[in-house]
Task: inverse folding
């Protein structure tokens, strides 16, 4: 029973890791689609998204089967429950990458971004890819130190997001309201992508150490980030 | 065992309903704070938010205890797992109301909204309150017909959200980029609030009928909504 549980739990962790990896890859392609106005890449993200949705369903069903057939207790039970909760976060990461790709597709053949903000999105994209890859490893290895490091990348993302707002709000902004609306939504999508990865890390830390990180929680991080965007 | 399970499950449904009710009330106050530039109301939403976070933790712990102590099987097990998943959606509804309140507070004593979009937010606020109240009843009664009707309200929200974008994107928009950025974020918060309520309804429908609604799923609804905001 115990060996069966362990095998199934490893499988579930790997599935979640695979999802996080795919979400990171989707954000990589979506960012390139955005920066290069590349319709083919955007459409690839959109069609690849089904695979993440499918893995979401499979993961939920596997976790449910684990509960039903292995009846885990104590820490094992908590691991499965956390797995179910993490599916929603990782699924959402994929949906956010999809949103970025859809904006790139909608504006094609035009570029969504004025050149002066390209650098922000290149860097937010780089962080998103890195945080997606790190979340994958965290899910597969349950390394609490690596999980804690997701927060550092999230902070870098929040900084960029704040700076992006100062650019938008500047009196010299000459690219009009429509571009500002797109950029506002895009910035939000990248920032939320990182928040969900941090939430995954937070759950892994709790599972392994029994404690939440000191500077909890993700919802708070999201709220703080909003508070501090420039007036 | 079965009677104990039923009692605990009713308690969990009521707790989730209470959370949804509080999220709806928070959105009501946040909307009034926004429309009237009312700092006291905005701060009330912000300080009341802790209660939703607290109920979130309590709900998760109750659901976990239910699994650990009652070891439910089959449909009962599925109910508890859904309960755990719904906590995240309802918690997020509260966080979105908090975001609206924080924007109202940040701009105080100024109004966030130019007068011409007040009507949109008054109506989006009305729908949010109504959908929050309906979600509360759905959680308490598990009425699948009422749960399906949440989607209608969500569609009304999406329509408003789309119209709001046409106003922002209009060449005659004279309120500058900063207001447009705020309105873009606010619109997104109301729209996501409704999406999460629909997701709660969808899970209740699945629990009661064993089938998902025909026009599934929420993530798709969110994605479609983005697709259709005006080019």
Result:
């Amino acid at each position: 029973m115990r060996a069966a549980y362990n095998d199934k739990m490893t499988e579930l962790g790997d599935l979640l890791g695979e999802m996080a990896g795919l979400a990171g890859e989707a954000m990589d392609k979506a960012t390139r689609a955005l920066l290069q106005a590349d319709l083919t890449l955007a459409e690839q993200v959109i069609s690849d998204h089904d695979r993440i949705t499918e893995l979401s369903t499979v993961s939920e069903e596997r976790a449910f089967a684990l509960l039903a057939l292995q009846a885990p207790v104590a820490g094992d039970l908590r691991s499965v429950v956390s797995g179910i909760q993490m599916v929603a976060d990782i699924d959402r990461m994929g949906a956010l990458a999809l949103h970025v790709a859809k904006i790139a597709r909608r504006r094609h053949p035009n570029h969504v971004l004025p050149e002066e903000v390209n650098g922000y999105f290149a860097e937010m994209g780089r962080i998103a890819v890195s945080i997606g890859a790190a979340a994958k490893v965290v899910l597969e290895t349950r390394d609490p130190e690596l999980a804690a490091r997701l927060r550092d990348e999230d902070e870098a993302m929040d900084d960029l997001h704040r700076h992006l707002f100062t650019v938008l709000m500047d009196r010299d902004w000459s690219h009009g309201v429509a571009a500002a609306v797109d950029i506002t939504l895009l910035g939000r999508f990248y920032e939320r992508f990182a928040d969900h990865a941090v939430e995954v890390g937070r759950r892994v830390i709790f599972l392994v150490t029994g404690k939440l990180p000191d500077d909890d929680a993700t919802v708070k991080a999201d709220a703080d980030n909003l508070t501090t965007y420039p007036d």
